[in-house]
Design a protein that fits this description.
Blueprint: H1 2-45, H2 49-54, E1 65-70, E2 75-80, E3 83-91, E4 95-99, H3 140-148, E5 161-168, E6 171-177, E7 187-188, H4 192-206, H5 231-235, H6 252-259, H7 263-268, H8 284-295, H9 301-313, E8 322-323, E9 337-339, H10 341-352, E10 356-357, E11 360-361, H11 365-371, E12 387-388, E13 402-406, E14 410-415, E15 420-426, H12 435-444
Antiparallel strand pairs: 1-2, 2-3, 3-4, 5-6, 5-15, 7-9, 8-9, 10-11, 12-13, 13-14, 14-15
Helix pairs in contact: 1-6, 3-12, 4-8
Length: 448
């Protein structure tokens, strides 16, 4: 018995040491993720706590968190086993922000001035219902089967698709939503927001206000080896800066998203590990640095906030879109864009039409080519804050397809040769969700 007690005591001590060293430091990130997720889902999209916990937060370790919504105060608090309480607040116009103890919730703040598109035009150039269209070259039985196959049968949680929309020649030819979601549901795009952020550089370029091929305008870099990094290198994720992007551990990306006050500052302070344009490395920190660079192009913070909506989001009628900010007031350009599936599709159509929106050129055609051209050392997988299929990553999908992509399989896919845009929103990504099969089946349903 004494021997058993000794062994038991040693096992307990080892377990406690493991929990203290390996698990306890993660609790702050777990409760932070949970609080932010619940606040965003509830206040941006009116989801219940039950739907959020069974869907958005149904992630290993994140499901340890206990969450409380305060509707009157518009905030959420989360803890893990009663430890590491984190708080996320909601502010109309800015969405949800994860805050720390230093954040002054009583301090006045600026919000974007919106001028949402209002007209009597049908989708996509207005927000009226689309006109019915039937194309003789589409096998609708095959198309509808491909879309239906992207969703789970009742009771399953294998594919976890929330919505799909297929747009051919500017017309919706298929659209489907899972239970609890519909055409009005705002869904988080995660890293699809990176493609939104990049687009502002194309818009500024067309306006003659920015040159991406010049060194990035960051004064802190001017006296060291980072002075030669161009904005185009940042857009290509090819700056050579140090960065670790993992989501199953404490790393640069998770500390930035769930602890940093100024998310763009995190990548700005990283040293160069490689010369630019020689070592591709995916970095959410880089995109938030790009957002910070955008902020510095304007004399006032209000102008920065307004520009994101006036020059793009409201311009193309993405009336549902909200891009959330960090504690410093920067848009979290890497990750926190929310919009309906139809509005995400409008963004894809803008790129399908090479920057032309109903007769107005928002960015030059050369910009659309830039984002869809493979960057050095990415093996044909990445362009300018867009993912590519140029290297045949999805073997049965046209190689000219390029796409905005986000965590858990968010996708806005643009097919220039097919005059096609496909959006899929969900909670599973490749390989758990078969994008190659889904996209190729949809393409094959259209006889060119």
């Amino acid at each position: 018995m004494k021997k058993f007690l000794k062994i038991f005591t040693v096992v307990v001590l080892v377990l406690l040491v493991y929990l203290r060293i390996a698990v306890y430091p993660q609790l702050d990130l777990i409760s932070g993720f949970s609080a932010k997720s619940v606040a965003s889902g509830h206040f941006n999209d009116n989801r219940s706590l039950e739907i959020i916990e069974k869907g958005d937060n149904d992630i290993p370790k994140i499901d340890w968190a206990s969450n409380t919504i305060n509707d009157a105060g518009k905030f959420v608090t989360s803890t893990v086993f009663g430890l590491k309480e984190r708080k996320a607040i909601y502010r109309e116009g800015l969405g949800a922000t994860l805050i720390n103890d230093n954040f002054d919730v009583s301090k006045p703040y600026e919000v974007p001035k919106r001028n949402k598109l209002q007209n009597n035009l049908p989708f996509p150039y207005g927000n009226n219902e689309p006109k019915d269209s039937v194309f003789s070259n589409i096998d609708y039985a095959k198309l509808n089967a491909a879309v239906a196959n992207a969703f789970d049968e009742k009771g399953e949680k294998e594919k976890r698709t929330r919505s799909v929309i297929v747009i051919y020649k500017n017309k919706i030819i298929a659209e489907k939503y899972d239970t609890d979601f519909d055409k009005n549901s705002r869904i988080l795009g995660w890293s699809m927001t990176k493609s939104i952020t990049a687009t502002y550089f194309g818009i500024l370029e067309k306006q003659g206000k920015f040159d991406i091929n010049k060194p990035a305008p960051i004064k802190e870099w001017q006296k060291d080896e980072r002075a030669i990094i161009r904005t185009s290198d940042l857009l290509h994720m090819n700056s050579g800066l140090e960065w670790e992007e993992k989501y199953d551990k404490i790393c640069d990306a998770t500390k930035m998203l769930f602890q940093a006050e100024d998310m763009g500052q995190v990548q700005l302070e990283k040293p160069a590990k490689f010369p630019p344009n020689l070592h591709w490395n995916y970095s959410s920190g880089t995109t938030n640095l790009l957002s910070k660079i955008l902020r510095n192009q304007f004399k006032t913070h209000q102008e920065y906030l307004d520009f994101w909506y006036a020059s793009l989001i409201d311009k193309i009628g993405m009336n549902s879109m909200i891009v959330e900010s960090d504690m410093a007031g920067n848009f979290v350009g890497s990750s926190y864009g929310w919009a309906t599936t139809r509005d995400w599709a409008k963004f894809g159509l803008l790129y399908l039409h090479k920057g032309n929106w109903n007769g107005e050129q928002l960015f030059n055609e050369s910009w659309a080519k830039f984002v869809a051209t493979p960057t050095n050392t990415s093996n044909g997988r990445y362009g300018g804050q867009f993912w590519l299929n140029a290297g045949g990553y999805l073997p049965d999908v046209p190689k000219d397809m390029f796409y905005a992509s986000g965590f858990q399989g968010q996708m806005v896919a643009v097919f220039p040769s097919q005059d096609l845009v496909i959006v899929r929103m969900g909670l599973k990504e490749n390989p758990d969700f078969d994008f190659n099969g889904f996209l190729s089946e949809v393409v094959l349903s259209i006889n060119k």
